């Protein structure tokens, strides 16, 4: 089955596999959402089954909760955990300071709450997610459904005074109807092309009535594990200022590769 995986999927897999080494017995671990995070959940499930790893997982979406249970990870709520040792999650973009755009999968609100409630956040990504300046990926902004068009107009008006290149936004759709998040909200995708001052934009967005949260993760991520299609992985730790390089064997196991639905 490995032969059917694209180089990007292989890169996501090796990043997840390497990041799983951060997880220690007894930890409370935030489990991200998306295709890269799904690899991590499968890797952790394998470690639980085969190596007797004991962890409690706090999922960041109903999708991840379902997968975690399927692979045998004990799932608890954030309120039960109260605080987490580590969160591992994917990203849509990361820059040199490990600031992120997240929310491509629509789970940014729970992802930000969980990551912020963690001693450490590690991002797992293929090398294609690295950017010099954030903003090519449309910035997801979660808004409440009430008056969402008014909120959208306010957001676009506010962007006029922001250091961005584009100022249009679109309501995320799920077929013919608006995409609805786990919290019952809508998502506006902001087509900014380039974000000159991500910190300022994040603060301003979150001050608007109707906006619940935005997908900029500023000063939250501690390390990124970058995967390459040929099995190379790079771990960049922003606090230590270190870069570790490694290569993982791409070994297929029935457990990990039997369900590639995510
Ligand atoms: C979900 C996210 C994901 O982490 C992000 O979209 C990356 O997804 P993938 O690993 O599938 O590329 O933020 O809300």
UniProtKB/TrEMBL annotation:
Tell me the InterPro entries matching this sequence: NagB/RpiA_transferase-like (IPR037171), Ribose5P_isomerase_typA_subgr (IPR020672), Ribose5P_isomerase_type_A (IPR004788)
Catalysed reactions, semicolon-separated: aldehydo-D-ribose 5-phosphate = D-ribulose 5-phosphate
What are the record keywords, sorted?
Isomerase
Which Pfam families has this protein been placed in? Rib_5-P_isom_A (PF06026)
Task: Supply the SUPFAM superfamilies for this chain.
Answer: D-ribose-5-phosphate isomerase (RpiA), lid domain, NagB/RpiA/CoA transferase-like
**GO MF terms, alphabetically ordered:** ribose-5-phosphate isomerase activity
* Biological process terms in GO annotation: D-ribose metabolic process; pentose-phosphate shunt, non-oxidative branch
Protein name from the UniProt record: ribose-5-phosphate isomerase
Species of the source: marine sediment metagenome
């Amino acid at each position: 089955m490995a032969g059917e995986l694209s180089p990007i999927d292989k890169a996501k897999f090796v990043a997840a596999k390497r990041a799983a080494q951060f997880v220690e017995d007894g930890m409370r671990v935030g489990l991200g959402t998306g295709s890269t995070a799904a690899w991590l959940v499968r890797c952790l499930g394998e470690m639980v089954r085969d190596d007797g790893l004991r962890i409690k997982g706090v999922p960041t979406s109903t999708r991840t909760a379902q997968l975690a249970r399927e692979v045998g990870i004990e799932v608890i709520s954030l309120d039960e955990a109260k605080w987490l040792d580590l969160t591992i999650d994917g990203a849509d973009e990361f820059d040199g300071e490990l600031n992120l755009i997240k929310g491509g999968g629509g789970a940014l609100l729970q992802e930000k709450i969980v990551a912020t409630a963690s001693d450490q956040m590690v991002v797992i990504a293929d090398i294609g997610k690295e950017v010099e300046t954030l903003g090519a990926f449309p910035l997801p902004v979660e808004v409440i459904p009430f008056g969402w068009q008014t909120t959208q107009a306010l957001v676009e008006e506010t962007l006029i005074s922001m250091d961005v290149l584009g100022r249009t936004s679109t309501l995320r759709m799920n077929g013919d109807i608006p995409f609805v998040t786990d919290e019952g909200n809508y998502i506006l995708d902001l087509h900014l092309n380039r974000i000159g001052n991500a910190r300022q934009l994040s603060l301003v967005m979150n001050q608007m009535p109707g906006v619940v949260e935005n997908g900029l993760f500023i000063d939250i991520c501690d390390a990124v594990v970058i995967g390459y299609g040929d099995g190379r992985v790079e771990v960049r730790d922003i606090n230590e200022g270190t870069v570790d390089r490694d290569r993982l064997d791409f070994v297929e196991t029935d457990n990990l590769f039997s369900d590639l639905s995510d």
